[in-house]
Amino acid sequence: MTPTRRSHRLTATVVLVVTALLLPLSACGVTRGGEGEANRRLSMYIPNSPGGGYDLTGRAAARVLEDADLSGRFEVTNVIGAGGTVAMQRLLNEKGVDDLVMSMGLGVVGATYTNDSRARVSQATPIARLIEDQEALIVPKDSPFKTVQDLVDAWKADPKSVTIGGGSSPGGPDHLFPMQLAKTVGIDPKQVKYIVYDGGGPLTSALLGKKIDVGTSGPSEFEGQLKDGSLRVLAVSGEERLDTVDAPTLTESGIDMTFVNWRGILAPPGISDESRERLVKMFTEMHQTKGWKDAVKRNGWIDSFATGEEFTTFLLEQDKRVETTLKELGLA
Amino acid sequence: MDSLNLLLDGFAQALTIQNLFYAVLGVFLGTAVGVLPGIGPAMTLALLLPITYSVGPDSALIMFAGIYYGGMYGGSTTSILLNTPGESSSVVTAIEGNKMAKKGRAAQALATAAIGSFVAGTIGTLLLVLFAPSVAGQVVKLGNPSNFALILLALFAVTAVLGTSRLRGFIALFLGLAIGLVGGQTGQARLTFGNPLLADGIDIVVVAVAIFAIGEALWVAAHLRRRPLDIIPVGQPWMSREDWGRSWKPWLRGTAFGFPFGALPAGGAEIPTFLSYVTERKLSKHPEEFGKGAIEGVAGPEAANNASAAGTLVPLLAIGLPTTATAAIMLLAIQSYGIETGPQLFDTEPDLVWALLASLFIGNTLLLLLNLPLAPLWAKLLQIPRPYLYAGILFFASLGAYSVSFQPFDLAILLVIGLLGLAMRRFGLPVLPLIIGVILGPKLEEQLTTSLQISSGDVSTLWSEPVAVIVYAFIALALTAIVVSGLRKPKPEAPLNEKEEVSA
What would be the CATH architecture of the domain defined by A136-253? Predict the structure, then answer.
């Protein structure tokens, strides 16, 4: 055998091995066989990268649906870009396609405005709201702020004196929460000093190093630091207290406001009523499975399932609220 | 001594058949994703996260750590052989490594990369074992002004690799900085031309693959019929005595750069590889070989990127603070088991932590055993006839660019920047300054804007931290030294002004 031939074989082997190793990574899109609705292959867009919030929620839902035989195999695709705007636009382009869904949430609503996109979540077909996360006001251990009131007093006296950091870019939940809070307590949102950090890690680091005064983020990312006492939570943003966090809600602290970061499922516009009903039914059945309850618990999410009129109204209300907030800031 | 006993217990746990299996699986997978540009360890771990449902925490973490270390090894293989960096941390390796491969020294380049990674990984893990509990609390004290100063230092060091023509070097550097400007990180869309696909900027892997691999493939294609093909010599399969002599110091210095940067919140693996490369170039007894395939230029950066992977685990394990995307996903995995991360992790889960640390040593050894015998085999890949080889490189590069974010648009970007790479070769512009500009430009800007945002625009914040002051003093000293030596033997093109431009 000539050396060249041998090299060809070697290359072929190398390519084969690499492909074989990578196949499980892209593992999806294999039909289980058989005919009928339950075996129809479905697609799901995820508007951010693997490991992100929409990815965790979307993939957990797809997995539960497959495992409980409620759907055929899911082909999950991460459509990354511009905070979810790219995925949103692609979903809207797939008009009438009835075997496609997309996981999304509050951050995507904001991103469509801050990225100057024409895509609006209100144009898609709402299927279901799945879960929600509360936001928390987090401070370092020896911060002078002991209660929300301390923070609000200092903030009102001089808005620029309080530096707030969050893990999402403008339009995302960590940004919208302090802006709406400021407005509620009577501070011009434009005066709020908000620093963008690239996710929970850098934000934790800034809080521990006391580079910022307050962090706004979901409390689950700070579990370890909250447990050992290096960080404290002044208040959580939801209607009820969290089991995992020893802190009052904003309402209990005398501020009339609730704010939740939610995630849900949308389908393309222009699908038939039967198709919409079929998808709603599928996710409703998924919501009742033990697998989904386990996933919600494991990830520390709060179940906030809603479909139909309730979710549609909620989605439109959120869209409006985000638009108003961002317009006031000159970001939309 | 206490640490060592605990570590021995960890070995006992990590060496069970099951955990060993996951360690082997992890290093194999890691090597594979490291080889493929675009798919990095972070994305692999994210896609494998569901595995945490079905295997125990020790097995999962051991596999994840194997993927992380394996990715650092694998990234160097394609850099050296195909001039296609698999990860941004192995970009620098391509510079000297691919030149070595073309001289028939691919096996040596791969070997020094593998052994250097092993040495750095082992020393790094040892440092991790000894210091993780005590130093981790310190890293958060470094704020944005210090990070800004450190990145500025790296950018300043780049002037040393600008090549023979400073003018061409600066053109390349500013081209890179311009590409780095694309995107909306500052809250305003910049150079996106209304295209949301550009809103997140252009991924560094796409730029590196385009400039190195596509640019080179087009260049070779353009000359294929004009020049007879020079056959790549086969060369010796193993490292010679001289190679060892020239490698060991760069390995150690690379480790010294990589470990601390890995542990810093804004450090990462890229900056220490640049600093290591520049240092080796300055210290080398064979400076004339740099740019033509100097083994030091492979040994140092490869050690640096592996040591930084170990450094990353310091804040992760000690205070539950992820400093890289890969570490963030490992943290997610730990938390999905209901394990509380943070300073108490060493006390509440000692078995898990020490088994993980022990498995890092095991993984490193496995990677060396896997990579060293493969080096001469990989090297034979280069004997494929040139047209087929470059066709393969083009395929590989496109696959990698596509898998960064699964957007066909990235392929268009790949081609455009690939044409830029061809033009740069045509006009003799060095490519390294461009890549460094793309990587460091956005980082520098981010640190500067965050510093100034926090200080409400007060510029004095930039020298408000001791580390920053020390770094600036160092830059000033180096500048003075350059000016003084420049005055002694004056050159026609006063380099003084250009230096100031960079540090301003």
Answer: 3-Layer(aba) Sandwich (3.40)
